[in-house]
Design a protein that fits this description.
- With 357 residues, this protein is an alpha+beta fold.
- It has 13 helices and 13 strands.
- The strands form three sheets. It has a five-stranded antiparallel beta sheet, with helices on one face.
- β12 and β13 form a beta hairpin.
- α11 packs antiparallel against α12 and α12 runs antiparallel to α13.
- Bound molecules: iron/sulfur cluster.
- The site of iron/sulfur cluster has 14 residues, from α9.
- This is FAD-binding PCMH-type domain-containing protein.
- One of its GO terms (molecular function) is FAD binding.
Length: 357
């Protein structure tokens, strides 16, 4: 039975200055409901263009309080049976409501996907990891400060064709790959980076009982392909699980996150690297970068450059340079070009030499 809910948040009047706008409280009503199953949840959201799913809420509720996100109907999916991890052979299925902390504690992750565990533990705080779900993590909105401040009018992601405040202002925590002058928003997830590296797929339920798999490499839409479209899900589609291939025996992986402080901070740059070594030879390699792209950035060209080559820091740096070739930079983000090269080189060295030791 839907419950009529009322919440209070501060809404800033974009016609007034930020200081003057602060403190103006607006009461906004919304419908809150708890569906009995996935089918009901999908039908409820699909039927109402102003409806949205609510899971861990660690990002969504902030956005609602700030007046950035204003759904009329919240469909709470937290009690649906979408929690848990199942390992079958080479595949791990992670329910979308599994928390980050639960996934980090999964033995198969420690044994076969260490870079996923390291990325999870490098993200957020323990309290947040106990609330935040894997599905929600993949769907988190950008941390762009201008996107999250409704008193800033120019944001193509929030208001199509309104401009981009970040391009003309401070933009240090923004992206350099998959962006252009219309939007330089960063995808801030850590765990999505190693998941992209191993070709994980989202399992999605849609209206009418439809189900489909979406490779995570195709799940998000780059900002330079349309700033206001963040992913390929249609309204009402629900991520129910993520299928993650486990790395076969002999592979080694790790996640390196470079940030301004050691905890509770987003990445300036990160590198998820998995390698299969044959002596000094890189028999196979998977690479993805975080902190630099509008989507978690799979570095396929670098992988091709390194497969079948020997451990060589110069070659590693060349692979890094190839990855960031064509980067779109602003004065505030130009440092990320060299940082990305250095981060990838360091992590490749760590993985290839440790694998040999
Ligand atoms: Fe908006 Fe993107 Fe510009 Fe941020 S970078 S202000 S999200 S358009």
């Amino acid at each position: 039975m839907p419950v009529r809910g009322v919440r209070q948040h501060r809404r800033r009047d974009p016609r007034r200055s930020r200081a003057a706008g602060r403190g103006r409280c607006v009461m906004r009503a919304f419908v809150y409901e708890r569906p009995a199953d996935v089918e009901q949840a999908v039908a409820a959201v699909a039927a109402d263009p102003q409806a949205a799913f609510l899971a861990g809420g660690t990002t969504q509720l902030d956005l609602m309080k700030d007046g950035v996100w204003t759904p009329d109907r919240l469909v709470d999916i937290t009690r649906l049976p979408l929690r848990g991890i199942m390992v079958e052979g080479q595949l791990m299925r992670v329910g979308a409501l599994t928390t980050m902390e639960q996934l980090a504690a999964e033995p198969a992750v420690t044994e076969r996907l260490l870079m996923v565990r390291e990325a999870l533990l490098a993200g957020a705080s323990t309290q947040l990891r106990n609330m935040a779900t894997i599905g929600g993590n993949l769907l988190q909105r950008t941390r762009c400060r201008y996107f999250r401040d409704p008193s800033v009018a120019a944001c193509n992601r929030r208001s199509p064709d309104s401009g981009c405040a970040a391009v003309d202002n401070t933009a240090r925590m923004h992206a350099i790959l998959g962006v252009d002058e219309r939007c330089v928003a960063l995808h801030a997830s850590d765990v999505a980076v190693p998941l992209v590296a191993v070709d994980a797929q989202a399992l999605v339920a849609g209206p009418g009982g439809q189900q489909r798999h979406i490779p995570l490499t195709e799940f998000w839409v780059r900002a330079d392909e349309g700033p206001s479209i963040e992913h390929v899900l249609t309204h009402g589609e629900l991520v129910t699980a993520v299928d993650v291939p486990l790395l076969p025996a002999g592979w080694r992986s790790g996640y390196l996150k470079v940030r301004d402080r050691a905890s509770y901070e987003f990445a300036l740059c990160s590198a998820a690297v998995a390698v299969l070594m044959d002596g000094d030879l890189i028999a196979d390699v998977r690479i993805a970068l975080g902190g630099v792209g509008s989507v978690p950035w799979r570095a396929r060209q670098a992988e091709q450059m390194l497969r079948g080559t020997h451990v060589d820091p110069v070659r590693f740096e060349q692979a890094g340079r190839a990855t960031v070739a064509g980067a779109y930079t602003l004065p505030g983000t130009a440092f990320k070009v060299d940082l990305a090269v250095a981060t990838l080189t360091r992590q490749l060295l760590a993985m290839t030499t440790e694998a040999n030791s």
